[in-house]
Design brief:
- The protein has 16 helices and 14 strands.
- The protein has an 8-stranded mixed β-sheet.
- α1 packs parallel to α4.
């Protein structure tokens, strides 16, 4: 029996690098970790191997290349059997534009294209490209085995009526101004696992996937394909998020820009970094745990959660209509979706008109890691809690190029 290959999965943010080594055959995660506060004085790295947690301080203002060098020279040196069996590197890439939707080998020309797409994802694509180049330096023998898996890819099936904005059509034709959607890797995984739970082919699945974390999005999946999603041209559209506003009247931004004499960058910061739950709590916190803990005693936390639930329920209701009364399930995932029984309860209590009946005992159990069905056996439709696993999806796609 031949030795099974391992895949190194890398997810680069502007100041972080998340990594894991995965066996794509048995789906086991062998080592995982996070380098954070990169480019800052307090740069650090933590990792877990066989249940044991470790951490270390990185050189001051360490960058992505430094982090990967630490991984190869300080971490993997202790686990030579892991390093030797890494046969390819999979990268989560945020934006593939219209050109890239399928997993792709990262050739120099592809990297140039992704760098050019930075204007569509200025916070993400440059970091993704940096991570690829750093990986090619750290693992020179795998330079031609770096694979991009695109966060926009699953949403390539959106029909024109879902992805076009009601702007002059020439803006789409000339500049690619359209809705792209994000969190696609997560939504695909959730669709795959839901079909598995229900015992039906993915191509027959009709569901609504709710990825709820600091960034949040919801996707309508019909016959196994994304047909609408809440994030749009950027990840700022849609649901209320940690610091992002989600849907807002575009004319309001023009008004605020003029009223407060905001620069373009200040306007961007307003809707991306100062709004959402942080803005609604009057600047107290974007941490959902803080908001739920203080929901009953802090009026701003109550306002924040009420707006959050209202927006989420509104999207679910509209997406249910798009599925032609063939809704198989709603699934909650992401840090909030997996861990907040309060959010799930408040949402499902408002969806009785769609035939959902919450089983609170099951819902509470899901909070302690017993993921699965949270609706009653009498419920017309089912709701589930399913932990997402984007790294596994990336590893499996990457393995196909070995």
């Amino acid at each position: 029996m031949s030795e099974q290959p391992y895949i190194l999965v890398i997810n680069c943010g502007s100041s972080s690098l998340k990594f894991s080594i995965i066996n794509p055959v048995n789906e086991e995660s062998l080592l995982s970790g996070l380098a954070e506060c990169l480019l800052l004085p307090e740069a650090k790295i933590s990792w877990k191997y066989q249940g044991e947690k470790h951490q270390a301080i990185l050189p001051e203002k360490a960058n992505h290349t430094d982090a990967l060098q630490f991984i190869t020279e300080q971490i993997l040196i202790h686990y030579p059997e892991l390093k030797q069996r890494i046969k390819a590197i999979g990268h989560r890439v945020t934006h593939g534009g219209e050109k890239y939707s399928q997993p792709t080998i990262l050739t120099p020309s592809v990297l140039d294209d992704l760098a050019a797409l930075a204007e569509l994802a200025p916070l993400h694509n440059p970091a993704n490209v940096t991570g690829v180049k750093a990986a090619q330096v750290a693992f020179p023998h795998l330079k031609e085995k770096n694979v991009a898996v695109f966060d926009t890819g699953f949403h390539a099936t959106l029909p024109p009526q879902a992805y076009l904005y009601a702007l002059p059509i020439s803006y789409y034709e000339k500049y690619g101004i359209r809705r792209y959607g994000f969190h696609g890797i997560s939504h695909y995984y959730i669709a795959y696992k839901t079909a598995e739970y229900l015992g039906k082919p993915l191509e027959d699945l009709n569901m609504i996937s709710c990825h709820l974390g600091n960034g949040a999005s919801i996707t309508a999946i019909k016959n196994g394909q994304s047909i609408d999603t809440s994030m749009g041209f950027t990840p700022c559209e849609g649901l209320v998020m940690g610091t992002r506003s989600g849907d807002v009247d575009p004319a309001l931004l023009i008004y605020l820009k003029q009223k407060l004499n905001l620069s373009t960058q200040q306007t961007s910061d307003l809707i991306n970094k100062q709004s959402g739950l942080l803005g609604l709590t009057n600047g107290s916190s974007s941490d959902f745990r803080y908001i739920t803990e203080n929901y009953a005693k802090d009026k701003y936390c109550q306002i924040a959660l009420d707006v959050y639930i209202h927006r989420l329920v509104k999207y679910i209701g509209s997406y249910a209509v798009l599925l032609d009364n063939k809704l198989d399930a709603i699934v909650f995932t992401g840090g909030i979706g997996e861990n907040s029984e309060l959010v799930r309860r408040l949402v499902l209590e408002k969806l009785t008109i769609l035939g959902f009946e919450l089983d609170q005992e099951r819902n509470l159990a899901a909070r302690f890691g017993q993921n699965g069905k949270i609706t009653s056996d009498q419920s017309q439709h089912s709701a589930y809690v399913i932990p997402t696993n984007e790294e596994l999806v990336i590893a499996k796609y990457t393995a196909s190029f070995i």
